[in-house]
């Protein structure tokens, strides 16, 4: 790690982005966060993210010193132009093109572009996101090829040398839990389990062993199955 290394983490308040934030705090001397309000159905994630962020700051004096500003961006235009199960109260199902209707077209492309714009102004050199194509819902904007192509486009368009880091790209959910344990021990695993939010339906009434959620949507199923494999030593 170089003293000049700096990162902007796409931080939603969910399991993956919290793990990525912990990863960035271990690897970079200066870390800032960015979140997006895009009219998501599970807007509860935006409610829990400040507390999760502050609890991560308290993990160690080193992390506290490295964690800088947070940036919240209004991207409600996504809800206005995308009729999806992530932004509207409609049943989750598979579309004719084979993708789930929880896919918000262009979401991660827009997130990274806006993040790069903020990073440009803030003098940050690395963009960190929780995209993953090993254990996910099939979203094309989570794929490694997409991120590599976007890195090229952003650097060409902004005459910069951004690096897009996706620490979870080749990890399944069980391995994501394992990474959290490596980064922050049982305390970080417990923070992610009880503090973060992943459920697409925004359900936060019952705390399961894997966290809060409806237990039935694709996000809950992935998170629960990964936790069970992790807790059972199947990683």
Main attributes of the structure:
single chain, 235 residues, alpha/beta, Rossmann fold, 5-stranded parallel beta sheet, two-stranded antiparallel ribbon, 8 helices, 7 strands, ATP binding, ligase, metal-binding
List the helices and strands and how they pair.
Layout: E1 6-10, H1 15-27, E2 30-37, H2 44-57, H3 61-66, E3 67-74, H4 77-81, H5 107-122, E4 126-128, H6 144-158, E5 163-165, H7 173-195, E6 207-208, E7 211-212, H8 218-231
Parallel strand pairs: 1-2, 1-4, 2-3, 4-5
Antiparallel strand pairs: 6-7
Helix pairs in contact: 1-7, 2-7, 7-8
Please give the largest β-sheet. 5 strands, parallel
Rough outline = globular
Domain module tally:
1
Question: Any idea what the CATH architecture is?
Answer: 3-Layer(aba) Sandwich
CATH topology: Rossmann fold
Describe the structure.
ATP binds at residues 11-21. The chain has 235 residues and is α/β, with parallel strands linked by helices. The chain has a single domain (6-231), classed as Rossmann fold, CATH 3.40.50.620. It is built from eight helices and seven strands; from the N terminus they run βαβααβααβαβαββα. The chain has a five-stranded parallel beta sheet, sandwiched between helices. The chain has a two-stranded antiparallel ribbon with strand order 6-7. β1 (6-10), α1 and β2 form a beta-alpha-beta unit. The protein starts with 5 loop residues before the first strand and ends with a helix.
């Amino acid at each position: 790690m170089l003293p000049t290394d700096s990162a902007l983490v796409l931080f939603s308040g969910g399991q993956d982005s919290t793990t990525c934030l912990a990863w960035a705090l271990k690897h970079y001397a200066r870390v800032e966060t960015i979140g997006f309000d895009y009219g998501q159905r599970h807007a509860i994630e935006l409610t829990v993210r400040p507390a999760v962020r502050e609890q991560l700051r308290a993990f160690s004096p080193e992390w506290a010193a490295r964690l800088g500003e947070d940036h919240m961006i209004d991207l409600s235009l996504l809800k206005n132009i995308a009729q999806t199960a992530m932004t509207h109260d409609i049943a989750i199902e598979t579309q004719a093109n084979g993708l789930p209707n929880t896919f918000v077209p262009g979401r991660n492309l827009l997130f990274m572009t806006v993040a790069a714009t903020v990073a440009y102004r803030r003098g940050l050199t690395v963009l960190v996101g929780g995209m993953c194509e090993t254990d996910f819902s099939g979203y094309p904007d989570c794929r490694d090829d997409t991120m590599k192509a976007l890195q090229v486009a952003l650097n060409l368009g902004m005459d910069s040398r951004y690096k897009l880091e996706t620490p979870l790209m080749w990890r399944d959910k069980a391995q994501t839990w394992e990474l959290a344990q490596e980064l922050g021990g049982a305390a970080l695993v417990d923070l992610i389990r009880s503090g973060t939010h992943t459920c697409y339906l925004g359900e936060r009434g019952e705390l399961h062993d894997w966290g809060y959620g409806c237990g039935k949507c694709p996000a809950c199923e992935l998170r629960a199955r990964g936790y069970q494999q992790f807790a059972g030593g199947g990683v």
